[in-house]
Amino acid sequence: MQTFLLRHSFISLILFSLATPLSAQEFTSLSIVDLQKLGLQANGLVQAARSQVDMAKADVVAAEAFPNPNVSIKVGPQSKRLPSSITGPSNNYREVNVSQAIENPFLRSARIGSSEALVEARQASLDQVRADLAAQLRVRAYELLLRQEEARMETGIYDLMKEIYRRIKVSVDVGETARFELIRAETEVLSAENRMEAAMLNAERARVALIQLAAGALQSGFEISASLNDPVNFPTLEELRQEVVQSNPDIRRLEAEQESASLRIDREKASVLPRVNILYENYQDAQFSTNVAGVNLEIPLFYRRRGEIDSAIYDSARLRDTLLYRRFEIGQQLESAWQAKEIARRRVEMFEGGIVTEAQLALNIAQTAYRLGERGFIEVLDTQRVLRGVLGDLLQARFELQSAAAEIDRLRAHYPKEHIIE
């Protein structure tokens, strides 16, 4: 039943690819860097984070604005209640009041500085989204290469099993081998075919996941011009520690948010100072014309913004503690990624240093002995399974090495940002 479902899914996938228009089937070869550029330009999460930066810049413009004046004009006729000999002639009444707030320079400076620090925080958040997406694209790309290598490996094993099955069938037909060997060989062929089709489906699933991550900017027939054997080179661990502390977007975001919170404390403290409004009044009627200037002071006598100041202090302390923890946590993540890279490198060196060669040699010897009639079919199967397991472990070790390298680059925000369209 499982074999039937796999075959049905595989056939459906082939029919779907044949039904796709020719323009979408054009093969495009992309390097890892090209793939990252494409994904960073098309992914909606990056665009949303960039909008947050633009919003923060707009808030700076608002923070830098000066307060507008307040103008009040009153105009109307005057009506006499007494004779003109007593009140004089009637006339229109006009009154103009102008009020202009004089902003506290300490309050203004703290408000602008806090808004500018939030711009840095939003930019760091954008860089974090970019770094995360670039790392995911890199890992998904190498996962696709891994699944394709596994599919090629399973295809080779399937071809080998078919060849052995053909030879056993000839031996059975001429009476040299028992029919039981043919049944067992047929079972192994079906098992190899099942694994091959499953590996192909896994490769297509990895391709779809990569297309989804790139927000549909990739054509269905694209190819990755990279290899699991790509070199992984980094500076020393000590240099990486210093680089991560300076360039990690999450650390930079928390530093900017802490700076904004500190300036918010200054802003709340500056709000305690009296607020000054300059007043001007012009009054005209039939007999008099008056010009009056004055000052309006708002004195914080009963409430001196104690709640707002304490809230800003506690928020600054929260961000400071969070920043200290994140520095430690990101440092430990770097250590873990570095150790994972070294472990994967040692595994690759161990497999490439002789294990794969020995397993391949053992299979060749078993096949030769089987053709000469000195070994049975079981010995060939055992050596083939050993080689398959060794090759699978080697591919997995190479993939883990590339994944650890992607994690290190994510922590230090290393991606092709100079090519991103702002």
Describe this structure in words.
- The chain is 69% helix and 10% strand.
- It has 422 residues and is of the alpha+beta class.
- The protein has a single domain (31-77, 125-419), classed as Up-down Bundle (Outer membrane efflux proteins (OEP)).
- The protein has a four-stranded antiparallel sheet, with no helix packed on it. Strands 1-4 form a two-stranded parallel sheet.
- A hairpin with a 4-residue loop joins strand 5 (275-284) and strand 6 (289-298).
- It is elongated, with a radius of gyration of 38 Å.
- Residues 1-27 and 418-422 have low confidence and may be disordered.
CATH superfamily: Outer membrane efflux proteins (OEP)
Mean pLDDT: 85
Give the proportion of residues in helices.
Answer: 55-70%
Provide the succession of SSEs. Answer: HEHHEHEHHEHHEEHH
Helix-and-strand structural type: alpha+beta
Instruction: Give the strand content.
Output: 5-15%
Q: How many structural domains are formed by the residues?
A: 1
Instruction: Assign an overall shape.
Output: elongated
Number of strands: 6
Task: Assign the CATH architecture.
Answer: Up-down Bundle
What's the number of helices? 10
Largest sheet: 4 strands, antiparallel
Low-confidence stretches: 1-27, 418-422
Strand order of the largest sheet: 2-3-5-6
Topology:
Elements: H1 2-19, E1 29-30, H2 32-42, H3 44-64, E2 70-77, H4 84-87, E3 92-102, H5 105-173, H6 179-213, E4 223-224, H7 237-247, H8 249-270, E5 275-284, E6 289-298, H9 306-371, H10 377-411
Parallel strand pairs: 1-4
Antiparallel strand pairs: 2-3, 3-5, 5-6
Helix pairs in contact: 1-6, 2-5, 3-5, 5-6, 5-8, 5-10, 7-9, 8-9, 9-10
